[in-house]
Amino acid sequence: xxxxxxxxxxxxxxxxxxxxxxxxxxxxxxxxxxxxxxxxxxxxxxxxxxxxxxxxxxxxxxxxxxxxxxxxxxxxxxxxxxxxxxxxxxxxxxxxxxxxxxxxxxxxxxxxxxxxxxxxxxxxxxxxxxxxxxxxxxxxxxxxxxxxxxxxxxxxxxxxxxxxxxxxxxxxxxxxxxxxxxxxxxxxxxxxxxxxxxxxxxxxxxxxxxxxxxxxxxxxxxxxxxxxxxxxxxxxxxxxxxxxxxxxxxxxxxxxxxxxxxxxxxxxxxxxxxxxxxxxxxxxxxxxxxxxxxxxx
Length: 297
Fold this sequence. Notes:
This protein is α/β, with parallel strands linked by helices. It has three domains: 3-52; 63-141 and 248-284, D-Maltodextrin-Binding Protein, domain 2 (3-Layer(aba) Sandwich); 143-239, D-Maltodextrin-Binding Protein, domain 2 (3-Layer(aba) Sandwich). It has helices at 3-22, 26-52, 72-86, 97-105, 118-126, 178-190, 194-197, 206-214, 225-231, 263-273, 276-284, and strands at 63-67, 90-94, 112-114, 130-141, 143-148, 168-172, 199-203, 220-224, 234-239, 248-255. The protein has a five-stranded mixed beta sheet with strand order 2-1-3-10-4, sandwiched between helices. Strand 1 (63-67), helix 3 (72-86) and strand 2 form a beta-alpha-beta unit. The longest helix is centred in the N-terminal third of the chain and has 27 residues, at 26-52.
């Protein structure tokens, strides 16, 4: 029973008691009338106080989450689990993390930011735009080379992606997304002159890289391992060699644009994302196991 319901029931009992006592005389009736009016005022005031004392956010208040596109597949399970357990509906805005970060900087009504790069969340934190301790890592993956699932071509190694004129290599435009910045970094780490050697085909996001490769408009693509596994249109032909691998850390934070009424649910959501069962679920969708205590505050 809610606190206000308990108060109402008790006050109703008092009114009935007064009425019963007052039925014995006309004077009593007058007293009853005054008593009922006083009790009615008291009931309004007490119920108002009871309402103010209820600290938990109203069930059904929608939580707005800005999320990396790599989370589309696992979120089909994760969001159902969270909504069922906490009774809070979640609305997700997917997009390149740089775009989502800029929206938050401009005051977009977003409660939680789950980026495809820890750096994007750190940038917000440095500007004082995060709450509740700042950035935390919630996932990790790595870069891979992919080829169309329908291609009959022989698999190549990661280093072949930068051979002179040998391949058309699709990757995300570094000016559009953090994925692109990391992709270029991975390619340059293998061959510092890769941007001169390979025929690069730039795309606005990972979905377009996958489309270019699957449609034959690019021979190879460089994407996150998690995106490759969940696409269904490409196959992984090589991963960055040991010692050259660049771990990609995904960061999250409750952001300054979070509404006061959603603050508790937002904190519950970021904790939910780092819980052991969600971390185990992410492995199924191609993410790597995170180092123990991989958080920042």
